[in-house]
Amino acid sequence: MEYRRLGSTGMYVSEISYGNWITHGSQVEAEAAIKCVKTALDEGITTFDTADVYAGTRAEVVLGKALKGVRRESYELFTKVYWPTGPGKNDRGLSRKHIIESCNASLKRLKTDHIDLYQMHRFDVETPLEESLSAFDDLIRAGKVHYIGFSEWSAAQIASALTIQDAHGYNRFVSSQPQYSALWRVIEAEVVPLSVKEGIGQIVWSPMAQGVLSGKYLPGKKAPAGSRATDKKSGAGMISEWLREEVLTAVAKLAPVAKEAGLTMSQLAIAWVLQNPNVSSAIMGATKPSQVRENVKAAGVKLDPSTMRAIDTALGKLPEKDPAKNESPNPRA
């Protein structure tokens, strides 16, 4: 495993993070999830990412149990706030009330006294930005949170937040958690250049485009039984946009590229996002330990220019690059 600094901070994170978005508390049983976490630790992963909303708060509970007994200083624990976690009108969004209450609830579920990185899971169009930033700053000053970040914000939203933080002397954002893969490159035009300038690192999710870049989905074939595309609890709706024949045909062309590089297609996909120097860590999920052991081999891989060009040639014009695709829906809608 290799390690990188998170943005301009002094904290290091593992190049590959373990995320439990659609696995813990829903897709796999707690026992299997705990085995995956233990394997991640054995393989050198020290960074674990979750969110209060995952599996209706159950994902945090499972992760807390899986990390029980592990020396707290030896790993970095990330979680998020924004999406609904209950039926009440204030059980969502980025109001001071919901942020503080959600942080306290996450600490209990995760069985810890602090969160290494607390993130705004989306941009809240209804709450004054200063209110949200003030609450996050207070959590840092209270010792409950070490660093703060956001997920899926546009460059304009990031710039507005940094202006407020600087004007009030608040602690600054140090991380961005966007979707990023060889097929989804919307952060490259605006978010990455601003992040480089401001010392913000990317912790990217779905580097395998919900599994499409793993090569398991073949053109003209039905999705494999038990895969994400066939599991309604496991993100089948999100992956559907990539299951077009033209996409699967292009992805199939990556098989010889991966073989030439001595990698599996999954390893190639993860290694690709890690070639971006602004990426601090790539989040991977797993339903069994063998997937963890395979994917961690992407850490430290340096893809040569010819391999990068071959990937671009295979995918052609399919990758989405429109920066306007960074969208934050209204959590109360």
Total beta strands? 10
- The succession of helices and strands, N to C, reads EEEHEHEHEHEHEHEHHHHEHH
Strand arrangement within the widest β-sheet reads 3-4-5-6-7-8-9-10
Arithmetic mean pLDDT: 92
Provide the gyration radius in Å.
19 Å
Helix content: 25-40%
Give the CATH architecture: Alpha-Beta Barrel
InterPro entries: K_chnl_volt-dep_bsu_KCNAB-rel (IPR005399), NAD(P)_OxRdtase_dom_sf (IPR036812), NADP_OxRdtase_dom (IPR023210)
Family: Belongs to the shaker potassium channel beta subunit family.
GO molecular function, one term: oxidoreductase activity
Pfam family, one: Aldo_ket_red
Descriptors:
eight-stranded parallel beta barrel; 333 residues; alpha/beta; K_chnl_volt-dep_bsu_KCNAB-rel; single chain; NAD(P)_OxRdtase_dom_sf; two-stranded antiparallel sheet; TIM Barrel; oxidoreductase; oxidoreductase activity; NADP_OxRdtase_dom
Word description of this protein:
Keywords: NADP, Oxidoreductase. Pfam families: Aldo_ket_red. Belongs to the shaker potassium channel beta subunit family. This protein has a single domain, classed as NADP-dependent oxidoreductase domain (TIM Barrel, Alpha-Beta Barrel), CATH 3.20.20. An 8-stranded parallel β-barrel has the order 3-4-5-6-7-8-9-10, surrounded by 5 helices. A two-stranded antiparallel sheet has the order 1-2. It has 333 residues and is an alpha/beta fold. The chain contains 12 helices and 10 strands. α2 links the parallel β4 and β5. The longest helix is centred in the first third of the chain and has 15 residues.
